[in-house]
């Protein structure tokens, strides 16, 4: 192999890496790790809220039924 072929091969590798850099950065870059660290910091502060009384569940169900009843419908002709 001559030096010209080696130089062309190296230029092709650099060109492909430059063209694919945004996708590689998105997948393997620092941003996904930062997002997962932020998410991990937020998760301990989350807590599950459960209804204490059955009355709240009935009130919620009634409000959902009212909302469903008030949805606009299309009349078939």
3D architecture notes:
- The chain is mostly helical and 77 residues long.
- It has a domain at 1-37.
- The protein is 71% helix and 0% strand.
- It contains three helices and no strands.
- The longest helix is centred in the N-terminal third of the chain and has 26 residues, at 3-28.
- The model has no long low-confidence stretch (mean pLDDT 81).
What is the β-strand count?
A: 0
First-to-last CA distance: 78 Å
Radius of gyration: 29 Å
Helix coverage percent: over 70%
- What is the H/E order? HHH
State mean pLDDT (0 to 100 scale). 81
Q: Give unreliable regions as ranges.
A: none
Question: What is the overall silhouette?
Answer: elongated
How would you characterize the largest beta sheet?
A: none
> Helix/strand-derived class?
mainly alpha
């Amino acid at each position: 192999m001559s030096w010209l072929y080696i130089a062309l091969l190296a230029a092709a590798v650099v060109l492909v890496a430059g063209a694919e850099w945004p996708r590689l950065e998105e997948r393997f870059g620092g941003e996904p790790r930062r997002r997962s660290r932020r998410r991990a910091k937020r998760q301990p502060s989350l807590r599950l809220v459960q209804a204490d009384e059955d009355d709240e569940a009935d009130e919620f169900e009634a409000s959902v039924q009212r909302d469903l009843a008030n949805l606009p419908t299309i009349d078939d002709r």
